[in-house]
Model the fold of this input.
Amino acid sequence: MLRIAALIFACLLAAPVAAQEAYPSRAITLVTPYPPGGGSDFLTRILADGLKTRLNQTIVVQNVSGAGGAVGSMQAAKAKPDGYTLLLNHIGMSTIPLLYKKFDFDPLQAYEFIGLFAEAPMVMLAGKDFAPKTFAEVVAYAKEKKEKLTMASSGMGSATHLCAMLFQEALGVQVTMVQYKGAGPAVIDVRSGQVDLICDLPTTTSGMVRSGDLKAYVLTAPKRLPSLPGVPTAAEAGMPSLDIGAWYGFYAPKGTPRPVIDILNKALREVMQDPAVAAQVDKVETYLLPLDQATPEAHRAKLVSQIALWRPIIEKAGIQAE
Done:
């Protein structure tokens, strides 16, 4: 009788341990807060495929777009903090609290940070009939025309918008921003000459540069892209302050257990060291970040520094999204 009682007691003690299943034991949802088909969607799917192999689980990519990435980002933040809903978002995470006051959303408090993943540079573009032939001529033209110079943006707080703001900040002049609901229609109007300039991702524009439909003036990257070898970096062109890339961070909801974060970070780092993944990322005109940035600490520090960078620029411009 005592032996049976002892066995029952031992089983009761073991029950909580058994209830804690090894992570991950089921499919994981990876949210991208942007529509399908764009650079963010491509990169999210590359990461999802890499994680699937390392975690031996299905990774379901979920596109939740709206409000410059804020809708999907907040949805992921409010998910159960168990490691089964994750988020990949880019530089837009640093501007959400500055542009969308109505959301009362603080990304520094809403997430556990897993690590930085990749970065996509921006390229400044114009239609083939735009007068300036070099970046130096673009700078001179902008200083002369000021608000008569138009720059397209794919939406308030988008990487295209931030690049344009950084450009006018570096010049010390105010240009006219033309807002669109996406990069596609913005590029169409730049290509036709209805708008003068746009900063956009090479992922979707380098083919048009090579065909001669667009001119490329400068690249916001530390080194030139193989696909656009004749386009100088901002530093080479004499404007090192035009330093912006669509950097991507990997997030989990606040309160996700540290052992789960450690598992995800290990998987992320393994993905980033895979030559096949590097080749896929290269195909979308993006590059993997150094492994020393693929840590929760480096990721959080990056977001802190980026919010500090954009706060005065956005406040000076007096912009706020609806």
